Amino acid sequence: MSEPVYRYLGARAALRRAMVGGVIAAAGLALVPAVVSPFQLLFATEMLIQCLFALAFNLLFGITGLLSFGQAAYFGVGGYLAALALVHGWTGILGVLLLSTVGAALAGLVLGYCCVRLNEIYFAMLTLAFGQMLYAGAWQWAEVTGGSDGILGVPRPPLRLLGLTLPLDTGLAFYVLVATVVLLATLFLWGVATSPFGLMLRAIREKPERAEFVGIPVHRYRLAAFVLSAACTGLAGALVVLLGHTATPEMLFWTKSAEPVMMSLLGGAKVFLGPALGVLVYAWLKEWLSSRLVDYWMLVMGLIVVGCGLFFRGGLCGALVVWWSARLAQRMSYVSTRDPQPDQIVRADGSS
Amino acid sequence: MSLLETRNLTKSFGRMVAVDHVDLTIADGQLTAVIGPNGAGKTTLFDVITGRLRPTAGRITFRGQDITGLPSHAIVSRGIARSFQVTNVFPELTVADNFRVAVLSTRRFAGRHGVRGSAARAPAEVARLLREMGLQSYAELPCAVLSHADQRLVDIGLALAGCPHLLLLDEPTAGMGPAETVAMTHLIRHLAQHERLTVVLTEHDMQVVFALAERVVVMHQGRIIADGAPAVVRDDPLVRAAYLGQ
């Protein structure tokens, strides 16, 4: 068994881990600007936003067991909403982030309502279709979305908080904003994943039908997960627009939807922070491969992801968890007391 | 008092009628066995009662309320639980988490406790189920590594979590060895007598049926062909014909 086993933590342990993890992460994030160059800081900002995108996607994929192949839809909705609000004179940056989050959540509610009834491949195909519909919409509705050019020159207003005005035009200031928002959103997703609600989502992932028969309204729970995932994805989209000052139709294209899929597979979908590790591995692989194989790097990347999917199901984090898991030894020693005949005893390794 | 009543209940797949105008009344507290040859419609009957399949015609009443056509989770939350012929648990969750899922979800919707109350009661409920099923020492193991018989117990524990009024067991001893079958028979009798649960089970093992059932219902080709005390049903010529061929 190469899959990490999830164990429900309970509210207190989850809160304790969130606080410890949050403090460590905050300290780590605060160190980054001190040790990297301004250009690398820009790269780090982008990575952080990708992490939020991948973690939001994984609430559906790794935790609820729904492979969304149209996550770019909510990324794009969040991004375009932020761009439109800012070019039309909104100046409150927190208001813009909230608008993108709520807007993407509403889009998730409407589209998700149609998708959550379906299973597996049908779910993936329908989410992909909705994603491509929005992509086509962004192209065609040029008066509003700018068509193929997208929306250029999106301003990045200063942050007004508690009577203070903090300009965000330096890379460092914007990094601090992104790090704070991403950390808070990640803690929120952690809270969802470790709550009783998150436990229900995992049960739905394992056996949707059995979940229905212990009294879980499966469609409603899936829709709730869909909306939360869309909301956090929209937030990531808004941050990307603020980072690059542009919203383009590529944000909605299906290749954008494929990114979090690959990142989750590389990093490990069943471990909460797996996709975040996947973001780093993906970025590193892309850098390393594209500098050596200018034209073929996508091919090799694809082969690596396929290899992960076939032979390395838990991804990197899954492998690490299993390695460290003392439970592995415990599992091996399981012998049912209700099996009197030795030939019926099945151990974890399949031997008898 | 009758707990469950089906009137004229019918389920057909195209021209094949799997459940054919079944009128069945289950009294409160009675342990009933539904038997019949393979393909008689026993599992389909369970599926229709629990909302897994929509009936083609007929009505189902549970505790005086019409539950025909409700989604499964709504039927479960009204107090009908079931186990499955093929063991059906959440394999990657630990045994305790399996029970936790069932406790939290059914309590929440049963309306007997508020959401807060249910969450506070959950640990005690999970402990009770682990004790009742004798699974305490495996509580933190993932279900997937348990033996077949132990997974079966988890399956039944999931069904019991919501403190149901009616428990439907679909071939609880299928695939079990002789010793495990005896243990399962004891467990079902315990549930019926001490937990005051109304149990309806399907079973192929006639020893289990006659050891447990107060009433035996025989199905054949979707219809009920005999219904009564075990000793009476055993000697019924129609039943003998159905089982042994004409």
Give a brief rundown of this model:
Chain A has 352 residues and is mostly helical. Chain A has helices spanning 11-35, 38-63, 72-87, 93-115, 120-140, 142-145, 171-194, 196-206, 208-213, 218-244, 254-267, 274-292, 297-311, 315-324, 327-332, and strands at residues 159-161, 164-166. Chain A has a domain at 11-253.
Give the tags.
heterodimer; A: mainly alpha; B: alpha/beta; Rossmann fold; 4-stranded antiparallel β-sheet; 9 helices; 10 strands
Describe this structure in words.
- The complex is a heterodimer of chains A (352) and B (246).
- Chain A is mainly α and 352 residues long.
- Chain A has a domain at 11-253.
- Chain A has helices at residues 11-35, 38-63, 72-87, 93-115, 120-140, 142-145, 171-194, 196-206, 208-213, 218-244, 254-267, 274-292, 297-311, 315-324, 327-332, and strands at residues 159-161, 164-166.
- In chain A, strands 1-2 form a two-stranded antiparallel ribbon.
- Mean pLDDT of chain A is 86; it is low at 339-352.
- With 246 residues, chain B is an alpha/beta fold.
- Chain B has two domains: 1-76 and 165-246, P-loop containing nucleotide triphosphate hydrolases (Rossmann fold); 80-163, Rossmann fold.
- Chain B contains nine helices and ten strands.
- Chain B has a six-stranded mixed sheet, with helices on both faces.
- In chain B, β4 and β5 form a beta hairpin.
- In chain B, α3 (95-110) packs across α4 (115-132) and α3 packs parallel to α5.
- Chain B is globular.
- The model of chain B is unreliable at 109-117 (pLDDT under 50).
- At the A-B interface, α8, α9 and α15 of A face α2, α3, α5 and α6 of B.
